[in-house]
Amino acid sequence: MAAGNEWINGYLEAILDTGERIHDQRHVGVNEFKAAKYFVESVTSGFDESYLYRTWIKASAVRSSQERSLRLEHLCWRIWHIARKKRLIEWEDAHRLARRHLEREQGRKDATADMSSDLSEGERESTHADSMPRVESNLALSISNADDAGASDKEKPVKDKYIVLLSLHGLVRGDNMELGRDSDTGGQVKYVVEFARSLALMPDVYRVDLFTRQICSPDVDWSYGEPTEMLGMGTYNDSEEVGESSGAYIVRIPFGPRDQYLRKELLWPHIPEFVDGALAHIRNMSKVLGDQIHGKGGLIWPYAVHGHYADAGDAAALLSGALNVPMVLTGHSLGRNKLEQLLKQGRESRQDINTTYRIMRRIEGEELSLDSAELVITSTKQEIEEQWGLYDGFDVKLERVLRARARRGVSCHGRYMPRMVVIPPGMDFSNVIVQEAGDIVEGEAEAVMLTSVDASNIVPITPRDNPPIWEEIMRFFSNPHKPMILALARPDPKKNLTTLLKAFGERQALRELANLTLIMGNRDDIDEMSGGNAAVMTTVLKLIDKYDLYGQVAYPKHHKQCDVPEIYRLAAKTKGVFVNPALVEPFGLTLIEAAAHGLPMVATKNGGPVDIHKTLSNGLLVDPHNEKEIADALLKLLSERNLWSVCRKNGLKNIHLYSWPEHCRKYLSWVALCRMRHPQWKTESSLENEELIESQSDSLRDVQDISLRLSVDGNTSISNPGDLERLLRSQNSLGKSNGKDDVKVNLGAKQRAVNSSMDSTQDEGTDARKTGSLSTGAYKAMPLKKRRRLVIIAVDGYDLTSNKPSATFVTHIQSIVKAIQSDSSIRVQPGLIISSALTMSEIVEMLNSAGMSPMEFDALICSSGSEVYYPASGSDDGGTQQDLQADKDYSSHIDYRWGYEGLRKTMARLNTSDAASANNDKIWIEDTGSCNSHCLAYTITNPDITPNVDQLRQRLRMRGLRCHAMYCRNATRLHLLPLSASRSQALRYFFIRWNVDVSNMIVVVGETGDSDYEELLSGTHKTILIRGAVEGGSERKLRASGNYDRVDVAPSESPNMVVAEANSVPAILLEALKQ
C-alpha cells in the first residue's frame, strides 16, 4: 500500500524511530496539520490489518486536501500502532523463547549430569545390553513384514488383537462424510474412518473400535446419534468365518450436553465424562471378546489405545493409565505451532487467542499426551523436529541420549521420551482410475483401475462417458488438447498460487506448451469469501488479465468431492503435471493422490514433499519463492517425454507404500515394539478360577442381604465379613441350616483365601501401624468385590494453622457414615471410601480420635492416590485382631514410568535455584514421614518462590521426567506421584478391578481443595459440593496467570453435580443412593 507513496514511508520511519507525533508538516503539504483525537483513539483500540487497504482507498478519493490529510494521518497512526504492537509481540516472544531455550539447555545438562555417574557400569553389562530389543528402520520393518507375509501361508497369525482409536470432535460416520461442513469435520475424520476399516482387515486384528462423541442435536443428521455403526467385517472375503463381534466399528459415547453439537474448543471440560463412558464399553467388550476368542472366562484387553488430536490424546492418556495398556498418539495439527503462527501475525493478543481457541488447554493436553504416549505417529520428519520439538515433553537431543542408554542397558533414572516414527497416511486406491502406461495422448489408451489389495496392480475397466467436471474445465481453454498443469489447493496465501501464476505468465514457452488449471475450492461470490481467500482470488484474476492468459487458465467455481479423482484423471489423460507450490507443506496428500493417478509432480522443497519425493521419486522439488525455478521444472517435465514417463512409472510403482495395508503393517510393527502391558491382577491362575470367583461373589451378595437384615432388625452393627461370620455362628435360628451352611462355607473359603495370601507385615514410611500386603488373587473376600455403589468422601478440609484435618472435615465424615448406616430403606448398602492426601496412619489416627474405626470403610485412598488400603480380618476364627491391607496390584498398576530416584535427585537440584539461594533458603524440605514407594512428599518452606504445578511440570518434563505433581494441605505440602496415580484415577481402577461402574459412584467434595481437586469434579459419577467445607485450599498453586481456567477442565454446570449446604448433604446423599 505504502510502496508507491514515499512520503508515507518516511513518515512512518520517523514515527517508529522516535515514537512521538510528527511535527514535520512538509510531507503532507498543508499549513495546519493536527491529529484528530477521534482518529487517535480509534487507532489505538485495535490492530487489525484487514481494513487498512480500504482506508487508503477512501482517503485517496477525498478531494478536500484538509480532510484527505486528516484521513491519511489517521491511516499512518493505524499503521504505526500495528507496527508497534507487532514489535512488542516479537520482543516478548524473543525473550520467552530465549528463557525457554536456557531452561531446556539447563534441563538437558542436569539430566546428563544425573545419568553420567553409572555410564561406564552400564557399558560393562554387555549381556544385558544385547538382550535389549533393537529398533529397525522403516526399511527393515518393511522387509520383515514382507517376510512375514510370505510365511503367512504356512502359519496363519492368530486374530486376537483389540485396538481402540479415539477421535472426539467433528461429525464422524462411515458413509457420506460431510467433509468441510465445519473446521472440525475435515481430513482427520476421513483419515480415522479409513484407518479403522483398514486396520480391522489385518490378519492378526480381531476388532477395532473408533470412539467419538454421540450427538443427538436437531442441527445434525440423526445418524450421529446412533450408539454404534459398523464400518467393516474385518475380512476381504465375505464367505470367511469371523467372530460375531469382529470388524471395525464406530462407537459413539455421550458426553457433554446431549442436544448440542459443540466445536472442539468447548469439549475440554467434558473429556473425563467421555473417558468413564469409554471405560465402561471397553470393560464389557473385553469380556465379550475373551469369550469369543479364548472361551468363557477370558479377557481381551486393548492392544493399544490410539488418540488422534490433542483432545483425544488427553482422553487416551487417562484410558491408558486406567487400563494399563500402551498409548499411541497422532497429533494431526499441534497447538504450539498454531500459537506461534498466530502471534507472529500480530492480529490477536495471547489472551484473545487463548479465549478463542482454548490454545493453552490444548497445549497442556498435548503435553499430557506426550507424558503417557509410548509411540507418536507423524507424517514427516519435519513434524518431529520443527513442531514436536517445541514441546516441553520432547527433546530430540535428549531422546537420542536416552535411546542410546536404553540400548546399552544403562539406567535412565526414570527419564523417558516417547518414540517418534514417520508413517505417512494411507490412501484408498479402490476407486482410483488411471490410464495404461503407454502413449496416452496419441493412442487410444485403455483405462485401468488400481486394486484395493495392492496399489501396484492394475486391472482394466470398461470405457465410460466423460464426467461433467471435464467439460466444466475444458470450456476455459482455447486448445484443450495441450498438457495440463494442475494445482489443487485452497486460495490461501500460504499455498502460493499467485507465484505459480506469475511463473506461468512470465515464461512464454510454458504458456505455448501447456494449459494451467487452478482448483481453488468452491465459491459463489468473491466478496463473500474471507479476507485472505478473497485477496488471493482477486490477485489471481488480476494476474490472468495482466499476462493475458484468457483461454490458457481454468479456474472453475464449483466442484464436488467425487470430482477430484476425475480431475486427476483428466490431467493424466493430457499427459500433464501436478504442482504444489506451497510455501510450507506439512505433508502433501494431494501429491500422493496425483501419483496414484499417474501424474508426475513439481512440489515445494519445504516440508512433507521431501519425504514423498524420496519414496516415490516421481518429480522435481523447487524453491517456492523462485518463479524461474518453478517454471524451469514444469517446462522440463512437460517437454522431456522420457523424463515424464520415468516419473510416472516410478510413482505408480511405489505408490503402494502409501496404501492403507502398508500403513497398517508399519503401524502394527511399531506398536509391537511397545512395552506390552495389561491389568496386572489378571494372571493365568486368576483366569483359571474365574468361574469360582463369580460364584463366590454371588454368595457374598446373599451374605450382604442377610447382614442388612440383621443390622436393621437386631440393631447390630455389621461392618465387615469377619463381624458377619462371628454373628452367624451365634444366630442358629436364622433360616434353614443348609442355607446358612452354604453362606458360611463360601464366606469362610474366601476369608481363608485372604489369610493364606497375607505377606509379612511391613513398615510404610513412618506409619506406626503394621500393615499386611495382599498379592494377586488375594482379594476374593474384599468388601469392594460385592459393592455396586460407592460413596467417596474427598473433602480436603485442613486447619489453617496446623494443616491437620479440621473439625469440620471430621464432622462431615461422621454425618455421612451415620446417615448411611442408620437408613434401613437403602436396598443395597454402598461402599464407603475416604480419599485424601493424608497418609494411612494419619487417616487412622483421625478416625480413632473421632470415635470411628477404619473398618467401617471399604477402602482408603491415601497420600493423594499413591496408596490404596482395604480392611481385612486377621484370622478366620472369629478373633478381634484386624488390620489394613495394602493393595499390591494397585502399586504395580501405577508403577509404570515411575522414576523415584531420578525425581528425588532433580528435586534436590531444583531446590537450590538462584531464586532460593539468594536468601540461602530452601524452597522445600523432603518429608520422609509422608513419603512412600510411590509418593515423594515435601514440606514447603518458602511459598513465595515455590513454582506452580504447571511450572514444576515444565521443568521436570524438560529433564525427561514424568510425574503427577500436586499441592495439598493449604499449599504447605507437595506430592509427586506416578503418572497413573491420582485420586480420580483410583476410582477408575476400582471400576476395572472390582467392576464398580464409575457412574455408580458419588463423590463428596468441598468448593475448593488440593490442586488435584478439579480432577474429581467431572465424569459420569455424581458429585456433591459442600459449601463452606474447606477454608483454604491449594488451587492457587495450580496454574500461573494467563493459562487456562477451571472451566476448561470441569464444567461449571452439570446434571451430575449438585451444590449443597452442609446440613442437607446426608439427605441429598441418601436420595441419590435410593435412585
From TrEMBL:
GO MF annotations in UniProt: sucrose-phosphate synthase activity
Domain Glycosyl transferase family: 477-652
Domain Sucrose synthase first GT-B: 163-428
Entry-linked NCBIfam families: sucrsPsyn_pln (TIGR02468)
Subunit structure and binding partners: Homodimer or homotetramer.
EC assignment: 2.4.1.14
Originating species: Ceratodon purpureus (Fire moss)
CDD domains xrefs: GT4_sucrose_synthase, HAD_SPS
Annotated pathway: Glycan biosynthesis; sucrose biosynthesis; sucrose from D-fructose 6-phosphate and UDP-alpha-D-glucose: step 1/2
Catalytic class of the enzyme: transferase
Keyword flag Nucleotide-binding: no
Keyword Glycosyltransferase: yes
Catalytic activity: beta-D-fructose 6-phosphate + UDP-alpha-D-glucose = sucrose 6(F)-phosphate + UDP + H(+)
Role description: Plays a role in photosynthetic sucrose synthesis by catalyzing the rate-limiting step of sucrose biosynthesis from UDP-glucose and fructose- 6-phosphate. Involved in the regulation of carbon partitioning in the leaves of plants. May regulate the synthesis of sucrose and therefore play a major role as a limiting factor in the export of photoassimilates out of the leaf. Plays a role for sucrose availability that is essential for plant growth and fiber elongation.
BP GO annotations: sucrose biosynthetic process
Name of protein: Sucrose-phosphate synthase
Coiled coil: none
Pfam families associated with the record: Glycos_transf_1, GT-B_Sucrose_synth, S6PP
Domain Sucrose phosphatase-like, first and last residues per copy: 827-1026
Keywords linked to the UniProt accession: Glycosyltransferase, Transferase
Protein family according to the UniProt entry: Belongs to the glycosyltransferase 1 family.
Record field: compositional bias (Basic and acidic residues): 121-132
Region feature Disordered, mapped onto this chain: 104-132, 749-772
